Structure of Fatty acid-binding protein, heart-like:
Amino acid sequence: MVDKFVGTWKMTTSENFDEYMKALGVGFATRQVGNRTKPNLIVCVDDQGQICMKSQSTFKTTEIKFNLNESFEEITADDRKTTTVVTLDNGKLVQKQTWDGKESTIEREVTDGKLIAVCAMKDIT
């Protein structure tokens, strides 16, 4: 059920994000900004059941709207054009991005009232 994800989530900590961005192929200058940015993630669901996830920071705001289990085109915060599918798997929102023969996943779950997001590319998390 996606209801538990609905709300505004504030980033408090980030670990190994620079290594993840390197694996994605993000350039040095963008990584510097990305490492200092602590965006809010706003999750909502509209009347038709479409999910909206908005990442808001002073640096950049990105927004995606999607239905579970349906692929869509996404322009990521680092300007990659991906084909993305979001599924609900064992209570986790799993966002799978593919582009140029590469693949990345972002798993989000709510634990003890906190949203935990784990980004993975190859063997980097």
Observations:
- The longest strand covers residues 102-111.
- The chain has two helices and nine strands.
